[in-house]
Amino acid sequence: MLLKDVPSAQNIEDAEERIHSYIHRTPVFTSTQINDLLGLKVFFKAENLQKVGAFKMRGASNAVLSLTKDQLKKGVATHSSGNHAQALALAAKMRKIPAYIVMPQNAPEVKVAAVQQYGAEVIFCDPTLEAREKTLKEVVDQTGATFVHPYDNYDVIAGQATVAREMIEDTDHLDGIFAPIGGGGLMAGTLLSAKYFGKNVPVYGAEPLGADDAFRSWKAGKIIPMEYPNTIADGLRTSVGQKNFPIIQKYISDIITVTDDEIIEAMRMIFQYLKLVVEPSGAVPFAALIKMKSKLKGKKAGVILTGGNVDLSKLPF
Q: Which of 81, 193, 217, 239 is the catalytic position?
């Protein structure tokens, strides 16, 4: 696979300018207690405080705002039961265009309600990838809407890249940035921003041991699709994308896998010391940093807290 049409530094700067009124510029937090416990200084980029509670609002907004006039008239479509569904629905509402979201019948009611509240039309399907893709194709064929992929889309990648760009702007030189890998949109964007704006600061990927397809793909030099993922980090159960993998291959420093117990402990520390609500997927990069703390002793690390959409009645601690 070759790197082709990868977002440039200008593309990311343009995305930042394009989406700034659609998103929050999220704060960066530190904790003296965490710094003392780990023996290094940690900067947490709080995308759990982003609109819709996750970084996904950035990529969805950039994709919607990059559409042509003809595309805007027909709206956007996707299949998702998670944060991308809500992000695309809200971005479409803010742009005053139709949104069609294919969701599995077993999607959490709270997520379905949120998508509908943003004005999107929800189309239900059987809870399989085949059914989701088939139903989406039917919707696109009927409506002419533009499919906005949750992560395998260069406009989405450029939007997600603004997370790391902001963190680099808001901190002194970092010695490492930690971000999770699911489909790889955020990771690809983080790697590009680190290269263009962060003086090639090392970027470390973090993955649950029960959904480690990116780690195995990276080691093998080819995409190995995720089958039967088993992790508390539900946002990271998907396979890495075709457009994202070459960027990860070329630029990533390392990929660290963590157990669900390590994810839960990282979550607990974020709740306890930062007083922030973070979902399991959002705690994965901090769990990876804890695992690597001896290698970064006395240095400065950035951690992207990707989302905060957690059911508080089902906390794992």
A: 81
Same domain, 66 and 40: no
Distance CA 200, CA 196 (A): 7
- Per-residue pLDDT reduced to its tens digit, 68-77: 999 999 999 9
Question: Per-residue pLDDT for 2 more than 70?
Answer: no
Domain count, the chain: 2
Which residues does 306 contact at the CB level (< 8 Å), separation at least 6?
47, 48, 54, 55, 179, 180, 186, 235, 279, 281, 282, 285
243 annotated active-site: no
Which residue segment(s) compose the domain that 164 sits in? 9-54+153-314
Q: Does residue 1 have a pLDDT over 60? A: no
Which tens digit of pLDDT belongs to each residue from 17-32?
999 999 999 999 999 9
Within 8 A by CB and 6+ apart from 4, the residues are none
Catalytic residue among 56, 111, 243, 300: 56
Task: Answer yes or no: 45 catalytic.
Answer: no
Range from 125-129, 200-204, 240-244, 272-276 carrying the lowest mean pLDDT = 125-129
